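Bug report

Summary: structure tokens for adenine deaminase differ between web form and batch submission.
Environment: batch mode, default settings.
Steps: 1) Submit the sequence below via batch. 2) Compare with the web form result.

Sequence submitted:
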Amino acid sequence: MLEQRYRWKNKHLRTHVSVLEGKTSPTILLKNALYLNQTFRQWMRANIWIYEDRIVYVGEQLPSHIENCEIVDCSNEILVPGYIEPHAHPFQLYNPQTLAAYASQFGTTTLINDNMALVLQMKKREAFSLLKDLRSIPSTMFWWCRFDSQTELMNEEEIFAHSHIKSWLEHDAVLQGGELTGWPKLLDGDDMMLHWIQEAKRLRKQIEGHFPGASEKTLAKMMLLGADCDHEAMTGEEVYTRLMQGYMVSLRHSSIRPDLPCLLDDIKRLGIQAYDQLMLNTDGSSANFYEQGMTDWLIRIAIEKGIPVIDAYNMATINIARYYNINHFYGNIATGRVANINFLSSVENPTPVSVLAKGIWVKRDGKSLDAYPSVNWAEYGLKKMEIDWELSLDDMQYSMPFGIQMENSVITKPYSISIDVSGDELPSDHDECFLTLIDRKGKWRINTLVKGFATKLNALASSFSNTGDIILIGKNKQDMLFAFNKMKELGGGIVMAENGEVVCELPLHLGGIMSDLPVQELMSGEKRLLEELRIRGYSFSDPIYSLLFFSSTHLPYIRITQRGMFDVMNKTVLFPSIMR
């Protein structure tokens, strides 16, 4: 860890100074660049000297020593800092490396990532080894430290043991604790979570909230207990209330909450004209949502909504860096900063023509460059799923008196089952399907019905879920068994089946939860899945999040979890899972 602790060693810093002294040549010289100077809040012209991954000078002077220096005339381009995504969930079928590579093409070169999948699916030693190795890619990867699983696990006390949390909080790559999906436990007196928040504060790290619909008094209480930021504002009034209580407010535009245009309209309506406490995020959207871009898309929306242009860029760069106390390295173009720079064709078009990430060209003149090394995921324990147990019709007995009704992609409520579920197939004249959550190791299961997911879906099997356990949905038990076995043969993934044949499949070879495909290729498979589901009656926007959140107890009102059917509001297990 000591070699990782400082961004540059002493010998590197001496070399950087020697560039200014004319003893060493810069590696890149950006001449006559019009760039965003966030100190003066102006577009200014300067020459920018870069040595390897660091900006060593910004100003009027030119270097005297330019041997082996790449000189770029920037007279016709506009330069802004590399964008920062402050709220990434890098496991939504894509993986951290493929997300970073894709995001870089749109100018997002720093990501602050959820660690949930690492905690649930990997040993701590493997996870920390991955964090270390991801330092070698051009993008900068920071992380959160989760304090709860946002579900009901069989072994939560073991996974979220104090020693584990302490190790994550102390890790140099971790910038914050949270997000606090388990905040009701905190308000109810969970002193261990409060201790972890205190530890994060001692380490000068932030706390990310998760407070949808919270009242002013609740927001004030959470601020007193240590929360610093929240990304769950869904109206301008909620933005205003959070600002009034001292929060940094992260404005979300995601696949299940595409709220940014309305939030910005509301902000203008309410007369909010100070933007320093605002930042932009995409909240770990599904791959298809990123087809139009990433942070650049959000900046474009802000500019189109009349936000002052410099503030629009600041909400994706310096505001985030200042909040996380990393502005001495990231979020601006100035001497000493990491060389993350986007080259734009115009101020109004935030999608970059060229991108430097850590001083490496990852995009040049509109063309993607192969700058991201592949990752050997097996070294970190992520390989194809090996399912050594069998599923049978005996596991598919559905006798529960109530099921789960979907209100939208992610909100579910209980409903009374009134149809006959004794047969092996349900008719397609209603929107109820069999639903099973089964342990990835085959130790337990829970069976119920789901209403509103589809009308004509014979079978879908998915190893992608909140906990990595297996979800089966469908109207035909034989096809559900067939889909499960095909998913098993794939080594994990999502399989849709009908009449003993595969309709579509998405292999997820990294532990059954992530794909090793580039994001662009993953989009094709995800689109096909959505198209086939819509044909069969899926009427919502995001099936990936539907699968992910069936077990997520941070959302109302009822969930299927490892421990059984769970009543979120009353925090009780209504029906326990059944051991096999």
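Above is the batch result. After comparison, the two runs are identical; trailing whitespace caused the diff. The CA atoms of residues 12 and 18 lie 10 Å apart. The mean pLDDT is 97.
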